[in-house]
Amino acid sequence: MPPTVSTEPNQGRNQGSSPGLSAYADVTASETSLRRFLHGLPGVDQVGAEARAAQLGTRSIKTTAKAHALDLAIRMVDLTTLEGQDTPGKVRALANKALRPDPSDPTCPSVAAVCVYGDMVGEVKSVVGDRVNVAAVATAFPSGRAAMDIKLADTRDAVEAGADEIDMVIDRGAFLAGHYLQVFEEIVAVREACQRPDGTHAHLKVIMETGELQTYDNVRRASWLSMLAGGDFIKTSTGKVQPAATLPVTLIMLEAVRDFREATGVQIGVKPAGGIRTAKDAIKYLVMVNEVAGTDWLTPDWFRFGASTLLNELLMQRTKLATGRYSGPDYFTLD
Amino acid sequence: MARIDVRKTYKLYIGGAFPRSESGHSYEVQDSKGKFVANAALASRKDVRDAVVAARKAFGGWSGRTAFNRGQILYRIAEVMEDRKPQFVQAIQQSEGGTAAAAGRQVDEAIDRLVWYAGWADKIAQVVGNANPVAGPFFNHSAPEPSGVIGVLAPQSSSLLGLVSVVAPVIVSGNTAVVVTSYSRPLPAVTFAEVLATSDVPGGVVNLLTGDAASLGPWLAAHMDVNAIDLVGLAGDTDATTALEVAAADNLKRVRRAPAAEPDWHDAPTLSTMTDFLETKTVWHPIGV
Fold first, then answer.
1. Measured between CA atoms, how close is A11 to chain B, in angstroms?
2. CB within 8 Å of B245: residues ≥ 6 apart
3. pLDDT band at B289 (very low <50, low <70, confident <90, very high)
4. Higher-confidence residue: B252 or A13?
5. Which ranges constitute the DSSP H helices of chain B?
6. Residue B216, pLDDT above cutoff 80
7. Where are the domains of chain A?
């Protein structure tokens, strides 16, 4: 089981001799200073980022390295179902799949977490217990268009129901309109709502919905904004908007978390979600994590895939490696 | 000044598109006298994998079409082949040698065979299906259903008539096919792929891989997402076909076994060419009152 639940509020924070988040207190003090800081971030070279992502995607990962990568990718999957048609039965089936993705192979690891709507948290929890994390989407997912008190109530409900991780969406409208401080304060407020009575807090993943942010510069700004506001993870997309996760966007986010740790000593996780469907794609992402952010991020604690169909693809590839013959979708559960 | 030849390198036909082999390999195709004709793509196991995925994706739509519609599409293939006759005659003459008249007769026969199978599309269910007698207040019907994705190792010597004779019965009933063409005589199959691409056949229903049946066969036979396999392309090679039958047993794949020698494709086909890739679905149905 991936030990991702933080038991201390500031686990992973203030490492080494770096100044920590406090150095940025004046940046986030006012709308003007925040804007000056975010617009002062170096611009993204779009052509360069896309070329670099494409180039990293050409690495050939074979045999034992591939087997290791597939197992790691399975351990990083946030098995997700976010449909209006989710029933308790379907969610329980998914939770069972999260525990034992391939029932015919006991060596197959569990996934990192199950990601559902807040009202399904209890259902998942009753199946997985503490063996797999439960992530809940909150704050009026996927649009984020609701009053602040509703968003906070949504979050508290999920935390009370036992969610280990909260996936919140930012207000893209406010971000694009330039109201950065409003977005910042929302994240801070949701983070407070993630606190549990015993002093621990549910891990907060901040969904930036990069498909709606228009430019790579905005992706970089939103990443920094989310990290400064105290998100534990930055996540690309809800999966409801196209394009969802892409390699260049994830590259920019990985650069952001790397630079953020250098500047503050605080390590932040990254979660691309949506649109990652093949095992080959997943391995491309892993290569990129290793090359851009470094091996520190190459664990389920710091890198996740938000996916549903990806898991079956990974299992099929895993079976192919083990048996030497191509497998088919008939031999894995539908989800 | 003499015109410079356009030297062709043909490609595979997978999912309605013409990709190069994933491996990047190609091989030289020679005519019946050993002279270089063109390059053909040498399919690898990964092309087999991609073709099976494409065939599986196409299966739902193709098997869900009405039998009448599938028959019309087979007629359409025959029509387009008729228009391309000179090209087929040339391809057969290059591959198999012989006279233009003999090649022309083979093309005619291939077209006639397609028409014959096209006619079967909406009749096979009536011939092999049944309303079974029962002793109670209900009906009991048996109906043929397509098996799914069929691997076909096409005949090695009959490059067009043999190919059509193994592909048409597979697809007419709603199956989709992954076909490995004759290794030394792939050019009529390449032209056939161009016909398929322009005759209303949905992409992925027929996937044509030019390559070596002996090296691709094991991947196709062991593939868990292939429902049946026709081994006629390895006719005469008992060791190879036995190995493939063993590999095919893993997912209880249906196997159309290879004969001792390649059959004479001029003979009239039998219904078993179709029924070998059909499964019988039996349903109980209450009598409405």
1. 45
2. B221, B231, B255, B257
3. low
4. B252
5. 45-64, 67-83, 85-96, 100-120, 124-128, 161-172, 187-197, 213-222, 238-248, 272-275
6. yes
7. 21-324
- What are the tens digits of pLDDT across the range A48-60? 999 999 999 999 9
pLDDT level of residue A18 (50, 70, 90 thresholds)? low
Q: Among candidates A258, A211, A214, A217, which has minimal Cα distance to A239?
A: A211
Flag whether B23 is in a domain: no
Can you point out the beta strands (E) in A236-281?
269-271
CB contact under 8 Å between A330 and B56, yes or no, is no
- pLDDT of the residue at A19: 65
Per-residue pLDDT reduced to its tens digit, B223-232:
999 999 999 9
Let me know how long chain B is: 289
Sort out which chain A residues have CB atoms less than 8 A from B222's CB and list them.
324-326
Q: H helices then E strands: how many in chain B?
A: 10, 10
pLDDT band at B272 (very low <50, low <70, confident <90, very high): very high
- A167 as an active site residue: the answer is yes
- The CATH number for B99's domain is 3.40.605.10
Per-residue burial over A317-329, b if 16 or more Cβ lie within 10 Å, else e, is bbbbeeeebbbbb
**What's domain A21-324's architecture?**
Alpha-Beta Barrel (3.20)
For A276-322, the pLDDT digits (tens) are 999 999 999 999 999 999 999 999 999 999 999 999 999 999 999 99
| Catalytic member of A167, A171, A232, A281 | A167
Chain centre to alpha carbon of residue B247: 21
A127 with A160: CB under 8 angstroms? no
Q: Is the pLDDT of residue B51 over 70?
A: yes
CA-wise closest residue to B190 among B155, B159, B233, B156: B159
Chain A residues within 8 angstroms (CB to CB) of chain B:
324-331
pLDDT tens-place string over residues A246-275: 999 999 999 999 999 999 999 999 999 999
Q: How many domains does chain B have?
A: 1
Return the SS3 of A32.
helix
Residues 6+ apart with CB under 8 A from A113: A2, A4, A78, A79, A98, A132, A133, A134, A135, A164, A165, A304
B207 in a structural domain:
yes
Query: ipTM of this complex > 0.90?
Result: no
Residue B123 scores a pLDDT above 50: yes
User: Is residue B28 a part of any domain in this protein?
Assistant: no
What CA–CA distance (Å, rounded) separates A318 from A107?
A: 11
Query: Is the Cβ–Cβ distance between B209 and B178 less than 8 Å?
Result: yes
pTM equals 0.90
Look up A271 and say whether it is catalytic.
Answer: yes
CB contact under 8 A, B225 and A325: no
The answer to whether B56 contacts A331, with C-beta atoms less than 8 Å apart, is no
**Cα B213 from Cα B150, distance rounded (Å):** 15
Query: Would the CB atoms of B222 and A324 count as touching at under 8 Å?
Result: yes
Is B213 contained in some domain?
yes
State which residues form the domain around B279. 37-286
Given A66, A151, A205, A235, the catalytic residue: A235
How far is CA A144 from its chain centroid? 17
